[in-house]
Amino acid sequence: MPKPVVPEEKRRRRRPTRSGTVLSESLIVETALRLLREHGSAGLSARRLGLALDCDPSTLYRYFRGMDDLTLAIGDALVGQALRGWGPTGSWRADLRTVGLRIHAAYVAHPQAALVTANRVTGRPHELAADEAVLDVLRRAGFPPADTVRIYHAFIDQTLAFATLDAASLALPSAALSADDAMWRSTYARLPAATHPRIAEAAPLLATRMVTSAYPTALDMLLDSAAAQLAALGERTD
Amino acid sequence: MPKPVVPEEKRRRRRPTRSGTVLSESLIVETALRLLREHGSAGLSARRLGLALDCDPSTLYRYFRGMDDLTLAIGDALVGQALRGWGPTGSWRADLRTVGLRIHAAYVAHPQAALVTANRVTGRPHELAADEAVLDVLRRAGFPPADTVRIYHAFIDQTLAFATLDAASLALPSAALSADDAMWRSTYARLPAATHPRIAEAAPLLATRMVTSAYPTALDMLLDSAAAQLAALGERTD
DNA sequence: GCCTTATGCCAACACCATTGACCTTATACG
DNA sequence: CGTATAAGGTCAATGGTGTTGGCATAAGGC
Q1: Tens digits of per-residue pLDDT, A3-18?
Q2: Mutate which of A67, A149, A225 to test chain B, going by most B C-beta atoms within 10 A?
Q3: Same domain, B122 and B56
Q4: Is residue A1 one of the residues assigned to a domain?
Q5: Which residues of A touch B196 (CB under 8 A)?
Q6: In a domain? residue B3
Q7: Rg (alpha carbons) of chain B, rounded to whole number
Q8: Which InterPro entries does the UniProt entry name for this protein (chains A, B) (predicted)?
């Protein structure tokens, strides 16, 4: 029975697969990312993954408890690659801005993977490291614990929420199945002004603006508010 | 072959199913919503839906092109029920706030359904009506077309993004499969201060705050910014 | 060089969406 | 009022999915 999954660091015997390739947690995750990119967000399956790795699908259950566990690992890989090589500079506002944009960019760079792993709390190492980093930046900036947690909450939720939303709009049109993109041209752009005057009026502007992300604007607004709060705190203690 | 889907308004002959119930598009969508609530976001399938409606699964393909088409209909039903009975009051800021909170609330009220239909542009009637309403509120408030579209974009994306995020955190714990909620208690709450001091320090505050939504705060910040822009516009033309 | 056991493989199970052919019955029209 | 028509419900089959129990084998510690 394949139940007791051996964690990566405990692995000793690396028996090669029939065709000679040696499996590992990271190799599986990377291959899954490739499959997602090539075949769309619905193109990841145990069978296809086994085919790509040239191993039996059931072998994957030696590394992950199930496909759900695998998707969590994929999500953590995204966070890890977002913050790889990053370190705090000392300017809390610049740091938070960079972290937010990096996470957002990592998701948007792998839209199909982002869709699969969206909105999940993985509790895996890279996610924990990111949370710790954001909390540390805020505390060092001078925010008391309560404000730190409140701002952290808004910051991380807004980042993940926009990352998912933007990833979705990038992933769906490329998938041949869904015609969300065509919807814009076929439905919105040719609505009669009689029934939908505002949409008809705005159609050209909408077409150019809706393809960009509103995240940077929202992020800066959040940081504005945080800076104002910090200033108010400083005045009171002075 | 069940290909040519007849739209609801063209239906004439309503032949009852084997057990006597008469199908309709809305009945199917309502039943799907119930199934989603009862069996979680993965519990919606053509077979189960057929079982609940006491009809053959293939019958559904007379009403929808496929499960994807059905999920779009579910999403539009959510938007429709969010704005049912709503009308503009004349105060653009209050109106936008109400619309945002209503849509957010409708998603959060059906978290499993929200997850399934999340991040999709349906192009269906209720969605079009909501877009038209938001654009109309902004234009009547005095925003020029360009600002209207920019604010509309930020507003609608922020609302949908947070709605999806919050729905996800509500839907997942109830699903017996995923242990995202347990993750908070099992992993975050008992992280050693040696490796993750900031998380350990903030754990109690995090536990109480992370269960609420950050959307209202973010929404008010967006409306603040919009109000400031409108005021600046007014000064210039005076 | 042996023994243990981690780990890859096989076969099978239960579920899923989707489709083509068939049949039945509600309606439209003569 | 009767009959033709086709909308729409049903059946059966196809090829996909995740997952698991049992088995075989080779890697590594001794």
Answers
A1: 567 776 766 667 777 7
A2: A149
A3: no
A4: no
A5: 128, 132
A6: no
A7: 22
A8: Homeodomain-like_sf, HTH_TetR, Repressor_TetR_C, Tet_transcr_reg_TetR-rel_C_sf
